[in-house]
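Support request from a user on the community tier.

User writes: "When I paste my C-alpha cells into the form, the page sometimes reloads and wipes my input. The last time it worked, I copied everything first. Here is what I submitted, just in case something in the input itself triggers the reload:"
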C-alpha cells in the first residue's frame, strides 16, 4: 500500500496539515540529495517530493529552474534520481517519496520502464504538471499497474466542472496551486485562497495540498485551517543553494514550518 494515505491520516489525527517538502534531485549533487532528504524527514516533513531535473520546466520559477540546470550540468538523469530513491529506501527511509517530473523525462525512459523502475525503487507517487487533463489515461494506467499514485493539479482558474473531474481522477491527494503562474516564494498569498481551497476540498474525496509560493512559517500557519497539506519547495531549494549543499539550513526551515503547523492545531 502507498505510504501517502497513512501519512495524511497521521497528520489528521494530530489535527494539523501534513507538511510536504520538495528537493530537486541532483542539486547540487546526488550525494547532497541523499543527505538532505533524510534530514528533512527527521525535521518534520511528512512527505517529500524529489524533482527530476528537466531542461524546460514550464511550471517552475527561477529558483527551481536554476536548481534543475545545476543538476543537469552535474549529470543527473531520470534514472539516477530513481536510483537515489532506491538507495534511500535501502537505508531505511520510510517517509513517502514522490517524483515531480515532466512528460519528457518519463517518455525518455519509456512509460512502462519508468513506472516499473519507480515501483522497484519504492516510489509512492508521481506528479506531472504538464500532463493535460483528458490525456492522463495512459500515464495513470501505467502508474496504477505499478501501484503508484498519480497526483493531479488544480488552480484558481479551474472551473467547477473541471475541478470535479480532477477530484475524481487524482490519487493520493489533489495539488492546488495557490496562484496562477510558476513556483517561487512570495511575500503574500491571495486573500481569496481560503475560499478556493474550501471549494477544492468540498469537491475532492482525496486530501487537498496547497503549494506554489509558500515559504514562511507564518504563511503555513495562516493556511493551516484551510488545507490538508502545505507544500514548500522554492524556499528549501534556495536555502540549500545558499548553504552550498549543507542540509542544515533546509532542515531548520522544515523544523520551523512543522512547528508552526503543530501549533495551528
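"...and here is what came back when it finally went through:"
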Amino acid at each position: 500500500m502507498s505510504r501517502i494515505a497513512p501519512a495524511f491520516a497521521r497528520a489528521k489525527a494530530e489535527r494539523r496539515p501534513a507538511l510536504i517538502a520538495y528537493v530537486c534531485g541532483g542539486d547540487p549533487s546526488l550525494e547532497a540529495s541523499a543527505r538532505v532528504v533524510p534530514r528533512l524527514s527527521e525535521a518534520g516533513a511528512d512527505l517529500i517530493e524529489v524533482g527530476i531535473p528537466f531542461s524546460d520546466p514550464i511550471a517552475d520559477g527561477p529558483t527551481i529552474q536554476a536548481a534543475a540546470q545545476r543538476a543537469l550540468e552535474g549529470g543527473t538523469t531520470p534514472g539516477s534520481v530513481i536510483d537515489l530513491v532506491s538507495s534511500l529506501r535501502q537505508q531505511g527511509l520510510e517517509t513517502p517519496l514522490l517524483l515531480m517530473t515532466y512528460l519528457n523525462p518519463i517518455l525518455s525512459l519509456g512509460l512502462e520502464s519508468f513506472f516499473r523502475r519507480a515501483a522497484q525503487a519504492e516510489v509512492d507517487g508521481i506528479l506531472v504538471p504538464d500532463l493535460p487533463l483528458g490525456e492522463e489515461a495512459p500515464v495513470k494506467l501505467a502508474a496504477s499497474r505499478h501501484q503508484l499514485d498519480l497526483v493531479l493539479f488544480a488552480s484558481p482558474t479551474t472551473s467547477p466542472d473541471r475541478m470535479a473531474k480532477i477530484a475524481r481522477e487524482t490519487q493520493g491527494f489533489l495539488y492546488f496551486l495557490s496562484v496562477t503562474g510558476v513556483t517561487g516564494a512570495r511575500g503574500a498569498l491571495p486573500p481569496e485562497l481560503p475560499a478556493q481551497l474550501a471549494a477544492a476540498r468540498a469537491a475532492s474525496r482525496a486530501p487537498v495540498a496547497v503549494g506554489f509560493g509558500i515559504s514562511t512559517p507564518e504563511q503555513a500557519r495562516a493556511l493551516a485551517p484551510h488545507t490538508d497539506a502545505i507544500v514548500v519547495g522554492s524556499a528549501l531549494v534556495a536555502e540549500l543553494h545558499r548553504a552550498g549543499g549543507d542540509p542544515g539550513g533546509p532542515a531548520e526551515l522544515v523544523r520551523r514550518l512543522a512547528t508552526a503547523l503543530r501549533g495551528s492545531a
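Agent notes: The reload is a front-end session timeout and is unrelated to the input. Residues 181-186 have pLDDT under 50 and may be disordered. Strands lie at 18-24, 47-51, 97-100, 125-127, 149-154, 174-177, 208-211, 229-232. Escalated to web team.
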